[in-house]
């Protein structure tokens, strides 16, 4: 039986770059030939979530949401738009971090769809955050002498978003790789505006747990941290802020290793991905080294 992968994301009518990471990760996975088909679908762009399964010829489909956390989109919008018969969020039996997968039938196409939890809560996302720090500093061994800030939107918007931020920050802290690790938020305490107040380390890498670069990551966060008084003027990396060097990495979802998390979600749900995970890890590391 042929198998297909469908990566679903939010997309944007306003930001033409919003879909770029989704397409890039799909291309990376497509090159591994692990799936007979690799498609993408969006809520706010074409191809739309409601139509994407009709573009898939395979009978067996793995759907992986390119979202940071569990919530409204993963629990309501995506299953509804894909017309997954019998969907109920209780199928995931999740505490906000532990959604895995459930197999249902798409009502209008009859396809067997295995619907996976979002990439943002998968444990491998921790590796992507660390890789992002390596990429922005150009140092594959970055850690000693550095602090790391993992940044999220804030709990007022979605309490599960904060859970994901804290989960990955705690895992990185326990690894002992960085001298200091802190979860920071845009709308909640502790705030990213006060980033230098939370670190003693002279160098701090800031990684926003966002899928794509947009208004928040390109405008709000750089200005809030004091990297620039006007994002349109740009900023240095690293930038000097109150006696610290701030290495601002931009959205974690733009890191090439994200393709690995998508693959791991599908593999854990039963997809046969062969050596694709190892291939992606090797290829994206080489690309990151070239870009540094």
From TrEMBL:
<keyword id="KW-0479">Metal-binding</keyword>
<keyword id="KW-0169">Cobalamin biosynthesis</keyword>
<protein>
    <submittedName>
        <fullName>Sirohydrochlorin cobaltochelatase</fullName>
    </submittedName>
</protein>
<dbReference type="InterPro" id="IPR002762">
    <property type="entry name" value="CbiX-like"/>
</dbReference>
<dbReference type="GO" id="GO:0016829">
    <property type="term" value="F:lyase activity"/>
</dbReference>
<dbReference type="InterPro" id="IPR050963">
    <property type="entry name" value="Sirohydro_Cobaltochel/CbiX"/>
</dbReference>
<dbReference type="GO" id="GO:0046872">
    <property type="term" value="F:metal ion binding"/>
</dbReference>
<dbReference type="Pfam" id="PF01903">
    <property type="entry name" value="CbiX"/>
</dbReference>
<keyword id="KW-0456">Lyase</keyword>
<keyword id="KW-0170">Cobalt</keyword>
<dbReference type="GO" id="GO:0009236">
    <property type="term" value="P:cobalamin biosynthetic process"/>
</dbReference>
């Amino acid at each position: 039986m042929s198998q297909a992968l469908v990566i679903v994301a939010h997309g944007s009518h306003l930001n033409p770059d919003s879909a770029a990471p989704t397409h890039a990760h799909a291309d990376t996975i497509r090159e591994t030939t692990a799936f007979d088909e690799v498609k993408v679908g969006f809520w706010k762009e074409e191809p739309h979530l409601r139509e994407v399964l009709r573009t898939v010829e395979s009978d067996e489909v793995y759907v992986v949401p390119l979202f940071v956390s569990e919530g409204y989109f993963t629990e309501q919008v995506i299953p509804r738009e894909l017309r997954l018969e019998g969907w109920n969020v209780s199928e995931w039996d999740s505490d906000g971090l532990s959604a895995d997968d459930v197999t249902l039938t798409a009502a209008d196409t009859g396809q067997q769809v295995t619907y996976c939890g979002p990439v943002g809560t998968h444990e491998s996302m921790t590796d992507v955050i660390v890789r992002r720090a390596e990429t922005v500093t150009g140092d594959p061994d970055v850690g000693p002498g550095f602090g790391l800030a993992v940044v999220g939107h804030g709990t007022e918007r979605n309490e599960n978003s904060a859970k994901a931020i804290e989960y990955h920050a705690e895992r990185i802290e326990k690894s002992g790789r960085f001298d200091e690790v802190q979860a920071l938020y845009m709308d909640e305490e502790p705030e990213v505006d006060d980033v230098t107040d939370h670190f003693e380390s002279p160098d701090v890498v800031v990684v926003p747990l966002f899928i794509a670069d947009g208004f928040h990551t390109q405008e709000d966060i750089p200005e809030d941290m004091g990297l620039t008084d006007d994002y349109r003027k740009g900023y240095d990396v690293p930038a000097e802020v109150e006696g610290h060097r701030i290495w601002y990495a931009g959205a974690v979802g733009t890191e090439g290793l994200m393709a690995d998390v998508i693959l791991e979600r599908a593999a854990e749900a039963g997809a046969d991905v062969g050596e694709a995970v190892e291939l992606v890890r090797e290829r994206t590391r080489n690309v990151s080294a070239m870009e540094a």
